[in-house]
Amino acid sequence: MFRNVAELVELAEKEQIKIAEVMIRQEIEVSGRSREEIVAQMDRHLEVMERAVERGLQGVVSRSGLTGGDAMRMQRYIEAGRFLSGETILDAVSKAMATNEVNASMGVICATPTAGSAGVVPGTLFAVKEKLQPTRIEMIEFLFTAGAFGYVVANNASISGAAGGCQAEVGSAAGMAAAALVELAGGTPSQAAEAMAIALKNMLGLVCDPVAGLVEVPCVKRNAMGAANAMIAADMALAGVKSRIPCDEVIEAMYRIGAAMPVALKETAQGGLAATPAGRAIAARIFGAAATK
Amino acid sequence: MKYKSVFDIIGPVMVGPSSSHTAGAARIGLVARKLFGRKPEWAHISFYGSFAETYRGHGTDVAIVAGLLGFDTFDDRLPNALEIARIEGLDVSFFTEEAIPHHPNTARLRIGDDKGKLELVGVSIGGGKIEIIELNGFDLKLSGHHPALLIMHNDRYGTIGAVASTLAKHAINIGHMEVSRKEKGKEALMTIEVDQPLSDDLIQELEQLPNIIQVTKLVD
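Output (structure tokens, whole complex):
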């Protein structure tokens, strides 16, 4: 059993196994289910993610009409070839948005770790697929690795926007994705932990301020940036860059910041972008004047 | 450890848009439905904290009603739950409460029909996970993720022992157990989370024990 990132990395290094394998072994022990059952369930979750990305890239629209179509727009832009950053990173951005657009349209997604942050992990995985050519089992392992880091955050801090702000949702997702990207690319367990630390550090303090209380604005674009952040953090860790603050202490800092964050900025739709004139106008349009008190 | 399984993190598979406000809410409704044992005819649902502020935006109201109708988080009928409730004769009303709850995502459900009623308080703690913290006035802690038994019984000596022995006979291990009562010698509630699936035979056997009023199985 691991309780924090340090123990997770130590277990993987001592046993000379991947972080994904540490997570699978723990799941077998905790659930009493067989390895085959557990891997098969993760495979089904991977399928849900694939379907959501495909659907989102074809273009969906949410009930409110606030989001949808941007994932498709980004794909067209990539195809036109005149982008500034890079193809892989923009693909991750587009696929992260695709998932969240499907989520906003009340479609079926897999929460990773939450629905509001469901785009980051699959977005990055499917974006590096072409470059790294992972096997199906390696893609499944990617999700176990992401899950192992998310498990630590969930138990030591929070993965709920209402309890910890967006840093707890998209921040956690970015950290999870960064760590899993490192492992998929052949990095070490400690490099995976560095990637998680670097990604999460850059999400600290991010508030949860959804316009009209909907998981749409700014959630879709925060997933886009969470995916971009994860990609860069993974590259930095693979290059040998280290976080001066250990990963577990970054997680602890995230928890404390979340606890100190005003309630108006924790998924109550009372502050931040939700409280801007444009944000209030959108809420009034959707729910009527009563909802904008 | 609040989160035990990797599928609490990479999961659930669910209808959007919010794991805490949609999937968690559906699960609270579903637990209430299972405890009640049948479709209720009416439901009074009170929202607290963030639930009260944003329930319409996240479809929290729709999701709780979906749960009461017996739909799981990934059921594609979920978005249409309010309409389905109307057609099936489940009369729902929603209230927003000013009181500040211990956790921001809290809902109190009062449901019933002409034969009985039930009241529970559920909390959505994030990522689709829930806890049931109150049932018919009893405080309890129930994650909704392990096979669990709720046993209403008379507060008499030997009752807890008899239940534990029966579970042991069926090779069922108790992971978490709580006993609460409102008053000495009156009605009491056992909450038992176990590691193995619970058969119908076992439930019947428990119901035959002395001083047992009602046995409800939650989550297989």
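Chain A has one domain: 5-287.
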